[in-house]
């Protein structure tokens, strides 16, 4: 699954396993018969029968499985088997862990097979997980249409039907879906047959059902799907809708179809190119073929994640699958390609081989994230997805994992509610970063061979991280890919079982060329004593180095108490650069002289002798270390000044991210003007080369160039570069004057977000309403999304207040998952912060209800809110509010803790570092303006 959330886990408490099912019985096959009425007038009622074949591992008179959110027909629950079968004496649902306990009059015998039959019924809801109802407006006839979708990961399959809802319990599934003939059903496997007879008649005769549905038997159909391969319950999926589909030209033996509402079907073309190409690339890369005869991909209007990898039926939110030739930007295209690649990578990492327990979620998500870059690389090589993603992932790790309240990659879970919380940047980005690190130090060949072996050995089964280590190690032993006598497990356990990442400190001895190196965990509060250490691959480059230098390992025992001493460093007048290829997630600090040598090169014409990743590492380290008072800000400002020359997106993005952290805490203070002056110095030149400055995108096919133009235009307007907002305003007004603005938008698509934001910011209510109308008329998800974000740019407090109200009510303006996006956008906007903060404080109860008690949305807004604080007063106010609303925040505990920690560092920076920063800034501006900066 692909989410965009941040959370954490308390890991010092002893872990209890009460929430896990006992292992007396295990399912081997589910025969599921389900019948739905997609009709608000009958409250979306449904009926079901689950026939579950189970095998007994140990004798027991109690069967425990999961069920949630529907009624069980207790008197009809039974066990069948060959002879002498126990009778059911009790059926009890315990909500604590959603246990369905079935008690029997005597023991089931050991090593025997039985079938458990459970009839159930209920009503679907407009939630975002389980089996739920989604709605959309058909733009052609204006009618609201409904559909049924599923989202079972991680623990909502139990909301769909009674099941053993843990990844370990792999089974085959056979589904029969009854539904009105106006609808089409798709599931993991191909449709086998359709029948007009009620397939549930033995338990739910039409006499009963027809009265509830208030429909004729003849208007219904029962679709039966082929039996699935063995898989975990969270991968079961189906969609019942009035959608159309487009067949993709298949490049392998897999039939590929993309589904969408009919008015958006033209927008599936790009997905239908990318999907089959990526799938067959992975088949070749893993050397393991895709086992299913078909693969469907569907766009769902109400969707909690961006995508979900259900085997054979991948689901997406609209904007993550649908691409419009004229309305979607190049970034939208990039997002779609990488999301499709991510979900298809899961067909191997996750679906074929599944983690044993959610603790090792990173084995699914880290791999899918890493492998996705390879897939995108294969289809769009000019995008350089591998390096782009590697850098983005590493920077993400630096941001979250610096917190003491972060969590290890492989994380013990004490409670099922904590599972949702680990779908975070640690599992995705840190997981992917560590996998890339392994590929780099083992070499691609050894790495691929081991992955192939791992995928074959654990096919249709489960694995934990030690299983991966041992497959990698076996190949390594064979090939000698690790030159020391260390094991993969030794190295990797230091990265996956510990929270955080190291700071490597380098002190050079310039007279004898030797180097002293030390390591310790990098956190904001340096007084925290930590005994942690890592196996760190050090890739080191000297200024004059021509060939790729050798990898040096810092073992977990080196550089901790005493420095590691390297005899041969670089020559005394040349710089030495660590982690120049960003192989591993660690920070580097140097002695002052080495920093100066690096800065000299960087600020000269020869800056590109330092590789892009090395420039990113240096920029990121320099901003962070100065933020934390471990490097002089004067040095950082000077280093960053080279960005005037930078032609590559990644370093520019990194430098501006460092500045944005400062901007965030200065933006409401008196000194902001001076800060803006500095940033203008950095970006004006690059801003003038394209984008808003020329009211156009130049080199529109070059992703690097487009991203630079978009980024620099956006910063230029917010830093008041002369002409930027005026140009945006002019373009916005031109759009407003266009005949038929919904068809003809003259603004280059990649600049639309910035232009509409400025247009609304500088405009009146009329501009806001006009933009809202464009959003409502559009059937392109990307357009709707960027217009939604722009609506938060208004300067009118009352408009923002009205906007926020929409997040609480069922309405046509917003899809459910958009509510938290709106609140977060308003919080982080200039004037919106104050309105949104009061809104959250006063209305948290309503917000909670409006989010269907889903923790994801609350988590997002808490983190965004806390990230804005710069004074102790704000934090104190929050803390007392938090006390009063503890219960509503209980599922976002960890995000709140991380948010509070971030707020504390911001507040402390303002109190202690801001005066120093302003001093250095003034000095820098004074000296550089005299030397024609
Ligand atoms: C429900 O389950 C919890 C956790 O296993 C247990 O503590 C509690 O006693 C159970 N409640 C009932 C009514 O059985
Ligand atoms: C029980 O079911 C399993 C899985 O379907 C099968 O492999 C096994 O042979 C069965 N055992 C008996 C005793 O029928
Ligand atoms: C519809 O079903 C839901 C879920 O069972 C229930 O909460 C709600 O009260 C029902 N509404 C009506 C009008 O019956
Ligand atoms: C497409 O898939 C079908 C089976 O679904 C297969 O018969 C056909 O040969 C495939 N086409 C190509 C070009 O591989
Ligand atoms: C692919 O896997 C098969 C079976 O595991 C093996 O025989 C073959 O050599 C592999 N091909 C490549 C190119 O590695
Ligand atoms: C390899 O292991 C041996 C014996 O355990 C040890 O003496 C030696 O120092 C190790 N070599 C390296 C490079 O770590
Ligand atoms: Zn995923």
Automatic annotation (TrEMBL):
Q: Does the keyword Chaperone apply?
A: no
Q: Which domain of life is it from?
A: Eukaryota
Topology class, membrane: Lipid-anchor; GPI-anchor; Single-pass type II membrane protein
Co-factor(s): Zn(2+)
Spell out the catalytic residues.
343
Question: Gene Ontology cellular component?
Answer: cytoplasm; extracellular space; plasma membrane; side of membrane
Q: What is its EC number?
A: 3.4.11.-
Biological processes, Gene Ontology terms: peptide catabolic process; proteolysis
Q: Which GO terms describe its molecular function?
A: metalloaminopeptidase activity; peptide binding; zinc ion binding
- Where is it located? Cell membrane; Membrane
Going by the UniProt record, its keywords in alphabetical order are: Aminopeptidase, Cell membrane, Disulfide bond, Glycoprotein, GPI-anchor, Hydrolase, Lipoprotein, Membrane, Metal-binding, Metalloprotease, Protease, Signal, Signal-anchor, Transmembrane, Transmembrane helix, Zinc
- PANTHER family this protein is in? AMINOPEPTIDASE-RELATED, PROTEASE M1 ZINC METALLOPROTEASE
Name of the featured protein: Aminopeptidase
């Amino acid at each position: 699954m692909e989410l965009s959330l941040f959370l954490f886990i308390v890991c010092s408490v002893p872990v209890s396993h009460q929430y896990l099912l006992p292992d007396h019985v295990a399912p081997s096959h589910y025969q599921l018969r389900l019948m739905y009425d997609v009709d608000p007038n009958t409250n979306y009622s449904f009926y079901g029968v689950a026939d579950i074949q189970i095998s007994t591992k140990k004798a027991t008179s109690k069967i425990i499985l999961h069920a949630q959110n529907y009624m069980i027909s207790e008197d009809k629950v039974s066990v069948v088997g060959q002879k002498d079968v126990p009778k059911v004496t009790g059926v009890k649902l315990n909500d604590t862990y959603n246990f369905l306990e079935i008690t029997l009059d005597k023991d089931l015998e050991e090593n025997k097979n039985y079938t458990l039959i459970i009839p159930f019924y209920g009503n679907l809801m407009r939630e975002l997980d389980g089996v739920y109802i989604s709605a959309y407006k058909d733009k052609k006839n204006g009618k609201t249409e409904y559909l049924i979708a599923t989202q079972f990961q991680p623990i909502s399959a139990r909301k769909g039907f009674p099941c053993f809802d843990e990844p370990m319990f792999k089974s085959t599934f056979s589904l029969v879906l009854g539904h009105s003939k106006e609808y089409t059903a798709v599931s993991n496997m191909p449709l086998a047959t359709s029948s007009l007879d009620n397939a549930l008649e033995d338990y739910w005769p039409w006499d009963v059902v027809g009265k509830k549905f208030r429909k004729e038997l003849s208007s219904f159909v029962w679709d039966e799907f082929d039996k699935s391969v063995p898989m975990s319950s969270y991968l079961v999926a189906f969609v019942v809708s009035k959608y159309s589909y487009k067949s993709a030209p298949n490049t392998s033996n897999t039939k590929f179809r993309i589904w969408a509402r009919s008015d958006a079907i033209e927008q599936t073309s790009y997905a239908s190119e990318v999907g089959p190409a990526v799938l067959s690339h992975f088949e070749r890369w893993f050397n393991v073929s895709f086992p299913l005869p078909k693969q469907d991909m569907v766009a769902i209007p109400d969707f909690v994640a961006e995508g979900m990898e259900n085997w054979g039926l991948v689901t997406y939110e609209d904007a993550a699958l649908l691409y419009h030739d004229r309305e979607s930007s190049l970034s939208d295209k990039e997002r779609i390609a990488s999301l499709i690649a991510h979900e298809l990578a899961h067909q191997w990492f996750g679906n074929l081989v599944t983690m044993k327990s959610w603790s090792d979620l990173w084995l699914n998500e880290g791999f899918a994230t890493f492998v996705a870059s390879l897939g995108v690389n294969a289809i769009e090589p000019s995008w350089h997805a591998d390096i782009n993603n590697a850098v983005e992932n590493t920077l993400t790790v630096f941001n979250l994992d610096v917190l003491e309240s972060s969590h290890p990659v492989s994380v013990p879970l004490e409670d099922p509610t904590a599972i949702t919380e680990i779908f975070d940047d640690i599992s995705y980005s840190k997981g992917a970063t560590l996998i890339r690190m392994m590929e780099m130090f083992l070499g691609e060949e050894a790495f691929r061979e081991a992955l192939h072996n791992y995928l074959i050995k654990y096919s249709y089964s489960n694995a934990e991280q030690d299983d991966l280590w041992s497959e990698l190690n076996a190949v390594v032993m064979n090939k000698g890919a690790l030159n020391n006598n260390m094991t993969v497990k030794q190295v990797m356990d230091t990265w996956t079982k510990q929270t955080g990442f190291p700071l490597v400190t380098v002190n050079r001895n310039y007279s004898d060329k030797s180097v002293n190196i030390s390591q310790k965990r990098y956190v904001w509060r340096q007084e925290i004593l930590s005994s942690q250490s890592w196996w760190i691959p050090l890739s080191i480059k000297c200024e004059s180095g021509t060939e790729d230098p050798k990898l040096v390992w810092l073992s977990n025992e080196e550089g901790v108490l005493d420095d590691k001493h390297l005899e041969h460093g670089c020559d005394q007048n040349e710089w030495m650069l660590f982690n120049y290829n960003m192989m591993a997630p660690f920070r580097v600090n140097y002695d002052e002289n080495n920093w100066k040598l690096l800065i000299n090169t960087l600020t000269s014409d020869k800056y590109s002798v330092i590789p892009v990743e090395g420039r990113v590492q240096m920029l990121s380290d320099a901003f962070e270390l100065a933020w934390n008072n471990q490097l002089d800000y004067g040095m950082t400002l000077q280093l960053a000044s080279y960005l005037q020359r930078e032609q590559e997106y990644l370093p520019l993005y990194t430098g501006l991210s460092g500045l944005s952290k400062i901007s965030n805490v200065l933006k409401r203070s008196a000194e902001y003007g001076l800060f803006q002056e500095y940033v203008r110095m950095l970006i004006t030149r690059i801003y003038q080369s394209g984008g808003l400055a020329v009211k156009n995108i130049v080199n529109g096919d070059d992703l690097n160039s487009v991203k630079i133009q978009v980024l620099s235009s956006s910063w230029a307007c917010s830093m008041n570069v002369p002409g930027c907002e005026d140009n945006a305003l002019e373009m916005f007004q031109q759009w407003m004057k266009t005949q038929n603005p919904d068809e003809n938008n003259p603004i280059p698509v990649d600049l639309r977000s910035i232009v509409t934001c400025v247009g609304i910011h500088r405009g009146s209510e009329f501009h806001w309403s006009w933009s809202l109308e464009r959003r409502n008329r559009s059937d392109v998800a990307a357009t709707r999304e960027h217009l939604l974000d722009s609506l938060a740019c208004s300067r009118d407090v009352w408009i923002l207040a009205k906007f926020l109200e929409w997040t609480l009510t069922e309405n046509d303006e917003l899809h459910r998952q958009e509510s938290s996006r709106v609140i977060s956008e308003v919080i982080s906007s200039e004037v919106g912060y104050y309105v949104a903060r009061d809104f959250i404080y006063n209305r948290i109860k309503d917000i909670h209800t409006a989010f269907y008690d889903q923790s994801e949305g609350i988590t997002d807004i808490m983190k965004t809110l806390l990230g804005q604080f710069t004074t102790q007063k704000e934090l104190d106010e929050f803390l007392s509010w938090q006390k009063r609303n503890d219960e509503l925040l209980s599922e976002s505990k960890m995000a709140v803790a991380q948010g509070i920690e971030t707020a504390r560092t911001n507040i402390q920076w303002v109190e202690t570092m801001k005066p120093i920063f302003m001093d250095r800034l003034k000095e820098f501006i004074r000296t550089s303006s005299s030397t024609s900066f």
